[in-house]
């Protein structure tokens, strides 16, 4: 709000100058079309959500390094991780909400992290990024279930093929629920939920959000208020 108000004098100055200088009738200022955005001058270049930005790059890079050409994702960001991955791999995308867009290389199946449309041990490359922290809170129309994240973990493990890769991204730090938005996990809680799998690596985006801490310790993650834990598992 402070930044928005701070930009008002600049907006008014720019508006007056534009009206005085403009000679093109089709581009004259019409007040019903004014779209106040001058506060962008005080933002950093290329503003981004640091969790999603670094998480999505990490996951896409991981798959690319492992030469994945067919991948299944459950509920991750289309305009981040999925877009990155489509550059080198076909993606089957599962989400509880409908998707009307037609995207080359993307096969959409409407479904739930609690009931994936795949046989046991059938998915060789699987991801679920910033999703299971929401499951069971009712935010997206799902049933309220305090243990919903554990149910989702069991379902992801069921579908994962032996020798397959599963990438998980969740908020980590002081463990708690912020109802009805999300949970924040102790990283050990995630390892316990996926106890049927082997943890290959754990990386962290801490509260500073300035990049990924590779091979981070759980103790460092626990000091975060709202970090992002990046887990790679295999069966």
Average pLDDT works out at 94
Computed structural class: alpha/beta
- Could you describe the largest sheet, including whether it forms a barrel? 7 strands, mixed
The CATH fourth-level homologous superfamily of the largest domain? Vaccinia Virus protein VP39
CATH architecture of the largest domain, please? 3-Layer(aba) Sandwich
- Rounded to the nearest angstrom, the radius of gyration is 22 Å
CATH level 1 class label of the largest domain? Alpha Beta
Output the CATH topology of the largest domain: Rossmann fold
How many angstroms does the end-to-end distance come to?
A: 48 Å
Question: How many structural domains in the coordinates?
Answer: 2
Low-confidence stretches are none
Q: Give the % helix.
A: 25-40%
**What order do the helices and strands follow?**
HHHEHEEEHEEEHEHE
What general outline do the C-alpha atoms trace?
A: globular
Task: Report the β-strand fraction as a percent range.
Answer: 15-25%
Strand arrangement across the biggest beta sheet: 3-2-1-4-5-9-8
* Number of β-strand runs: 9
Number of helices: 7
Characterize this entry briefly:
It is built from seven helices and nine strands; from the N terminus they run αααβαβββαβββαβαβ.
Throw out a few tags for this protein.
7-stranded mixed sheet; alpha/beta; 2 domains; 9 strands; Rossmann fold; globular; single chain; two-stranded antiparallel ribbon; 7 helices; 235 residues
Folded structure, characterized:
The protein is α/β, with parallel strands linked by helices. It contains seven helices and nine strands; from the N terminus they run αααβαβββαβββαβαβ. The chain folds into two domains: 2-42, no CATH class; 50-234, Vaccinia Virus protein VP39 (Rossmann fold, 3-Layer(aba) Sandwich), CATH 3.40.50.150. The chain has helices spanning 2-6, 8-21, 50-65, 78-85, 148-159, 187-193, 218-222; strands at residues 70-74, 90-95, 106-110, 123-129, 160-172, 176-178, 182-184, 198-205, 227-234. The strands form two sheets. A seven-stranded mixed sheet has the order 3-2-1-4-5-9-8. A two-stranded antiparallel sheet has the order 6-7. A hairpin with a 3-residue loop joins strand 6 and strand 7. Helix 3 packs parallel to helix 4. The longest helix has 16 residues, at 50-65. The N and C termini lie far apart (48 Å).
């Amino acid at each position: 709000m402070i930044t928005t108000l701070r930009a008002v004098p600049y907006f008014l100055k720019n508006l007056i100058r534009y009206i005085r200088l403009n000679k093109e009738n089709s581009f004259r200022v019409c007040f019903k079309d004014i779209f106040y955005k001058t506060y962008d001058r005080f933002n950093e270049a290329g503003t981004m959500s640091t969790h999603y930005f670094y998480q999505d790059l990490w996951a896409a890079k991981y798959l690319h390094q492992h030469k994945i050409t067919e991948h299944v994702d459950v509920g991750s960001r289309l305009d981040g991780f999925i877009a990155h991955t489509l550059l080198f791999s076909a993606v089957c995308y599962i989400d509880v909400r409908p998707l009307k867009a037609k995207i080359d290389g993307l096969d959409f199946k409407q479904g739930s992290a609690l009931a994936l449309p795949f046989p046991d041990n059938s998915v060789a490359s699987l991801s679920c990024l910033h999703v299971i922290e929401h499951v069971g809170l009712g935010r997206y129309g799902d049933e309220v279930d305090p243990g919903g994240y554990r149910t989702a973990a069991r379902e992801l493990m069921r579908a994962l093929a032996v020798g397959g890769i599963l990438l998980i991204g969740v908020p980590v730090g002081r463990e708690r629920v912020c109802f009805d938005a999300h949970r924040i996990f102790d990283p050990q809680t995630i390892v316990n939920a996926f106890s049927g799998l082997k943890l290959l690596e754990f990386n962290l985006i801490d509260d500073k959000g300035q990049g990924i801490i590779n091979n981070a310790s759980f103790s460092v993650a626990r000091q975060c208020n709202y970090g992002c834990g990046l887990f790679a598992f295999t069966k």
